[in-house]
Amino acid sequence: MAATSDNAMHPAFEKIRSHHIGTLNLDVEEYRHIKTGARHLHLAADNDENVFFVALRTFPMDSSGVAHILEHTALCGSERYPVRDPFFMMIRRSLNTFMNAFTSSDWTAYPFASMNRKDFDNLLDVYLDSVFFSKLDKLDFAQEGHRLEFDKPEDPTSDLVYRGVVYNEMKGAMSSATSQLWQNLSSHLFPTTTYHYNSGGEPDHITDLSYDDLLAFYKHHYHPSNAIFATYGNIPAVEHQERFEKLVLKRFDKLDVKLPVYDEKRMFAPLRVEQAYAVNEGEPTEAKTHIVVGWLLGHSFDLEENLEGQLLSSVLLDNSASPLMRALETTELGQAPSPLCGLEDSNREMTFVCGIEGSEPAQQQALEQLIEETLKKVVEDGVSSERLEAILHQLELHQREISGDGFPYGLQLIMSAISPMVHGGDPVDLLDLEPVLARLREKIQDPQFVPNLIRRKLLDNPHRVTLTLRPDDKLEGLRTESIRASLAQRKAKLSDEETAQIVERAQALEDRQTRKDDDSILPKVDLTDVPLQMPEPEGRFDGDLSATVYARGTNGLVYQQVVLPLPSLNEEELALMPYYTALISEVGCGELDYLQMQDRISAETGGISASFVSKGKIDNVQDMSGYLVFSGKALARNSDALARLLKDVYSNARFDETGRIAEIIAQIRARREQAVTGSGHALAMSAAAQGMSPGAWLSFRLGGLEAIRRTKSLDKSLKEPAELKAFCQKLTDLHQKVGKQSRQFLLIGEDEQLQPMLDDVKGLWQNAESAPDSAWRMEPVNYTTHEAWLTSTQVNFCAKAYPTVAVDHPDAAALTVLGGFLRNGYLHRAIREKGGAYGGGAAQDSVNGTFKFFSYRDPRLADTLADFDKALEWLVEADHSYQDLEESILGVIGQLDKPHSPAGAARHAFHSALFGRSAEQRGRFRERVLATTIDDLKRVAADWLAPEKASTAVVTSADNRALVEQLGLGIQEL
Q1: Which residues contact 598 (CB under 8 A, 6 or more apart)?
Q2: How far apart are the first and last CA of the chain?
Q3: pLDDT of 503-553, one tens digit each?
Q4: Which listed residue, of 11, 233, 430, 831, carries a Cα 20 to 30 Å from 244's Cα?
Q5: CA gap 654, 657 in Å, rounded
Q6: Over the stretch 727-758, which tens digit does the pLDDT of each residue have?
Q7: How far from chain centre, in Å, is Cα 359?
Q8: Are the CB atoms for 955 and 676 separated by under 8 Å?
Q9: DSSP 657
């Protein structure tokens, strides 16, 4: 049952309404603060993971990144907590399950979640003070936003450079062609409103923002009258309100916050724009153009408009059987559909986008014609009632599913409700979809309903922009030279006094960054607040089928997995595995072609997928085992259909639709290439660790930088018909080999659903033949590597790795604590605060037996690699307090105890047991973590992190070729 309110209400608030949502098992309560007008949305639920979220409407009218830089700077000290970095300090002193801050296009939010009430209250104190009583020190603005500094801060003869955390974060973010594509498209779709601008900040405009601009923006926007408070969980609303009133609201009066919230002026004719994005000088530019078409639609906060937009997007783009997606996937005008395809409904007005990547500028008109012809054909032919029902089925399933494995479930619900609250809509409507789904079901009975939508919202809508984004291998050089020349000119004009001020500010910032604050003023939890071993779901085993069954509160959904040990594979077959798992749910099956299968999957399930999982033993990372897992989910009423679908795919998937397979490989290539600028730190760590265990080797070759390079080569080779046919035959042979293995099953659902589900699966599988397993094994891996991977990026991603131990080794716990200890005590300050990178740290990976240092969106390279080594010197030479150790232990425990969704917890327990990771083993690890001492940290660092054992990898720009050669790193071209 939902945790319903007892109708208690704080006298400073008035209750607007309460609304029960049965499908989500919660009560939505809306309140308004009487004096200031601040709003409070409370989602009362029977869940120990309580969530807090406060959002301020922020409508920047330039691309200086003022809202984003303010989001960072507000967390750098406040009235009651005047320490330099309370946000990161609280991360270390907390059992939080989530802590962060977001800058959206038109709101800024500060959310956290915790399962511990004391911890929740501590974080609430600090968050409220940080948001509403921030100190906004000028030096923090220089650190987090931007500053002018000499390249050697104390040496005015060295070059002037720009530094700052957000400055480098956005240099990294805007290195992505997809980010530039979205920002450029938005700027033309929204010529006059806040969405015209980059709320994160354009690097070339960030440097125009002054400290006074920041203060003025804060004063105008960060006021309770402009705030939306949202909470979720089993703490009653009145208890939250008591804290809000005591800590913040009683000190404020109502403020009339005037913000430019209005609709975009409509265009009367479509617009065509061509712009450029940077690639490395000399890099081929063929087939690297993006072309997208975007339309401005109606209000996102109008429920009818929103659901019609979602229906429109699903009809046209939901899967490969959808007409527009099919056209974009099969056209020879480009290599793959654009990653922007779909509906964007987080802004005040929605946008619908479709297009292609891997094209040429000259194809712009041909693409427009293809899209228009496809839309007209859908209008003429209509859409079948079966497909429309399948789309409504997907909407229902999405609303019912309790997620939360990577992001707190309560926070996801709040994020759904915030957009209408910001824009003037009703938050309940977008949470309680049942009534509007019923109305949509009535509307789709009219065969002209969807054709009329397409005609009105797209074909007859002149507010349309076609954007062509082409590669330019000279652009980055021109930009770099322009900045260099501008800074050189600026330096030449500096007076002696201005030069001295730059040096003095750099020194003042250095002093501030190295200052040891009195952190005793911050609230904290300690090891006495750490719970005992968290309870784990227990499954029951059915020996007739070799099935493990979990009864979980899944809100009307069921989950099934077919799990089989990986057969003996040679290296070529192993390299096929990522493509096989990606393709198997995208191809034809039995008598059905891939389009019919896409329709079947959409109508009967919430999706199916396949994955390859492998791990070393708990005491030996060199001894690996692996499994292939076929997964699916569905509404309980479709449990039998899900079981049949998984059986059919497992038994009858076919890889003879060669054109379809070539399309999917092109899409995989595009996705993998786009991942570099967003996940460069993970890719660099994978490259550095590749030679340390079979698992690390696989990670690098099947999902890392080598996988990206191989996929590019594969995609190119499949243009030859003979190569494509041979590739498809290899997939067929692999599928037949996989199908001979023995199987076991994982079934998850609510108690009353389990026996019917088990009976369905038994009926389908009990007589299915299997041969004795041919066990997959890998040879041990042991080598070092020193590599630099060159790509188009304005920032660097650096990594260093050392071979260490498996999870049940006595030193694994201390090494895990050491990662947080080095990050908290040295790396955060050296790499982020001083170095200007967006992030950096260290971590033990006990699955693959490696310890890794990393930096993310980093302006430095050699200095960061040196800082990794200096962190180990600091560990040995500096004095360390017990509190520093305790904070690192808390961080590890917080990660161990992070909650899963109901289904996710069952999956985790099952797959842990599959690889010998029992509750007893996890208990041993937890005890070792809690018993770790500072001497243990020094000992394991000395034993395992010796310089001669280190491997290094960086992802960087081709401009740094000479530098990486000086560092002794081998050049690898992506």
Answers
A1: 319, 320, 321, 586
A2: 53
A3: 999 999 999 988 888 888 999 998 888 877 777 889 999 988 899 999 999
A4: 430
A5: 8
A6: 999 999 999 999 888 999 999 999 999 999 99
A7: 27
A8: yes
A9: -
Helices assigned H by DSSP within 359-495: 364-381, 385-400, 409-423, 427-431, 434-443, 449-454, 475-492
> From the CB of residue 521, how many other CB atoms can be counted at a distance below 10 Å?
11
Tokens found for residue 608: 């199916």
Among the listed residues 843, 784, 853, 778, the one whose alpha carbon sits nearest the alpha carbon of residue 617: 778
Task: Establish how many alpha carbons lie within 13 A of residue 504's alpha carbon, considering only the half-sphere containing its beta carbon.
Answer: 6
Report the amino acid identity of residue 70.
L
Q: Does the global pTM surpass 0.70?
A: yes
Q: What is the pLDDT of residues 792-806, one digit of tens each?
A: 899 999 999 999 999
Tokens of 972: 């690898």
What percentage of the chain's residues is helix, strand, coil (to nearest 5)?
50, 20, 30
Do the Cβ atoms of 143 and 85 come closer than 8 Å? no
What does the alpha-carbon distance between residue 162 and residue 208 come to, in Å, rounded to a whole number?
Answer: 11
Q: Are 602 and 318 in contact, with CB atoms under 8 Å apart?
A: yes
Query: How far, in whole angstroms, is CA 117 from its chain's centroid?
Result: 27
Spatial neighbors of 888 by CB under 8 A, at least 6 apart, are 92, 817, 818, 820, 821, 824
CB distance 477 to 435 below 8 Å: no
CA 92/CA 395 separation, integer angstroms: 39
Q: Among 167, 174, 71, which residue's Cα sits nearest to residue 127?
A: 71
Q: Which residue has the tokens 């480009």?
A: 334
Query: How many other CB atoms sit within 10 Å of the CB of residue 317?
Result: 21
Flag the least confident range among 209-223, 448-462, 712-726, 754-768: 754-768
Q: How far is CA 264 from the centre of its chain?
A: 30
